[in-house]
Amino acid sequence: MEFDVAITGAELVDPETGARKATLGIRDGRIAGILDPGVAVDANETIDAAGKVVLPGVIDPHTHFGYAQSFEEDIATETGSAALGGVTSILSFYRQYQGMQPAPYDELPELIAAVNRASRVDVGIHFGMLAESQVDEIAKYAGLGVTSHKFYMAYRGPDGATVGMVNECDDGLLLEGLAKIADIGGVACIHAENTDIVNRTMRQVKESGAEGLAAWSKARPAFAEAENIRRVAFLADHVDATIYLVHIGSKESLDATRYVRESGSRAWVETCPHYLTHTYDSPVGPMAKINPPVRTSDDVEALWQGLIDGSVDTVGTDHCAVPKANKEKDIWSAAAGFPGMATTLPVLLSEGHHRRGMSLQRVAQVLSGNAASIFGMTGKGRLQVGADADVVICDLDLERTVRHEELGSSCDYSILDGRELRGWPVRTIVRGTTVALDGELVGEPTGAFISR
Questions:
Q1: Which of 45, 199, 305, 327 is most buried, by CB atoms within 10 Å?
Q2: What is the pLDDT of residue 387?
Q3: Region 364-371 average pLDDT
Q4: Could you tell me where the DSSP H helices lie in 194-347?
Q5: Which helix (H) or strand (E) holds 55?
Q6: Are 3 and 33 in contact (CB under 8 A)?
Q7: Using CA atoms, how far apart are residues 32 and 43, in angstroms rounded to an integer?
Q8: Domain boundaries, the chain
């Protein structure tokens, strides 16, 4: 059979069908054939991947482009970092920042143009629902290819000031937004932290003189998230909406997600790589400040168990290109957020597959297949004939020390700097075109907007 590209000698790992030794053939940007190893192929380019594994390209459903620098600047730099990490598709939360009054997202055409002009990988968008004027246009956004939106139960009052957010979405508007999400068959992404509790505990802990990541964890307690998870599920059930619970990072919150799912709520659960690698005792200090905070080693192991047993559906990075200068402060002044896309796959391979016995099929599910299904990303997240040829070739035995200088982000640090990880991507292919090879970017930007 004739192909543009043939990948031979590798073990292919599909989220649905599992692992098999096969040749993968690519034609016109799509997977055109999966053949037994002995079948002869005719291809313009043959990639010998003997001894390696081929996974569907990683889908990162949770990033924040346009947070610390402009949206287009983030597209130009951070999608390159993503490609180096085996990420082929990204969904980015977009909202107005730094005290801006929330307004309808009339800039969507400009955002799409920036993606099509400068991105190394494919990028779709979720909008942050901060005001009634935005909630009113949910049906309009669906017609333009944006079918998922984020509702912040946190970040009102002093809590909102910590991230420069004006959030007018109270529970009444949240309920209305959930109903509109249900009407379009979309997904409501939920940042579940009780902002009233956090406003008080944050003030009290700060006034006590406490410092460090442990103080930040105490200021934003896990029970405030767990309570909100139960409450938003109750509201979503009332209007038959599907919710996606972002950045779950504690055992208490994970147990709350299990409770609402067992009660019949349509709820998907996401964790982030930092909740799998860091605790509030980490020596990186404020560099790992994030909302919700990193917790304890018991929480880390609970999240790994949730990934393995199916309680957690996806891994999103919450990637923010926050510069080091904004992090090297006391815990109360340091900015929240940090980069993570380039190291997520190595973390799952090293800490999940090698250390904890997580199957490669499960890795493919939580890093690709599930996100594609949840967010309606047609053609993404699987190694099957007809799917987009979004592929990452991995060397499971490659050991590297994390060095931020090699990760392609505009950020001058990684919270994993100096850590040894085993299992790295060596080639990233987006719609049939190699975009990263052996730790280097290849070619010009060819990413496209993902309309859903």
A1: 327
A2: 98
A3: 98
A4: 195-207, 212-219, 222-239, 251-262, 274-277, 297-309, 344-347
A5: strand 53-56
A6: yes
A7: 12
A8: 2-54+385-397+420-441, 57-374
Q: Which residue has the tokens 């002995």?
A: 38
With 0-12 CB in 10 A as exposed, 13-18 as middle and 19+ as buried, what is 38? exposed
What is the residue-averaged pLDDT of the chain?
A: 97
As a CATH number, domain 2-54+385-397+420-441 is 2.30.40.10
Q: Is the pLDDT of residue 330 over 60?
A: yes
Give the residues across from 14 on adjacent strands.
Answer: 18
* Cα-Cα-Cα-Cα dihedral sign, residues 394, 399, 402, 408: negative
Instruction: Work out the burial of residue 417: count CB atoms within 10 Å of its CB; fewer than 13 is exposed, 13-18 middle, 19 or more buried.
Output: middle
Sorted by sequence, the CB contacts under 8 Å of residue 14 that are 6+ apart come out as 56, 361, 364, 369, 382, 383, 384
Q: In this predicted model, which residue has the larger pLDDT, 158 or 275?
A: 275
Residue 96's pLDDT band (boundaries 50, 70, 90)? confident
> How does DSSP classify residue 342?
G
Over residues 388-405, the pLDDT tens digits come to 999 999 999 999 999 999
* pLDDT tens per residue, range 147-203: 999 999 999 988 988 888 889 999 999 999 999 999 999 999 999 999 999 999 999
Indicate if 57-374 has the same CATH topology as 2-54+385-397+420-441.
no
Tell me the backbone φ, ψ of residue 43, rounded to 5 degrees. Answer: -140, 150
User: CATH assignment of 57-374?
Assistant: 3.20.20.140
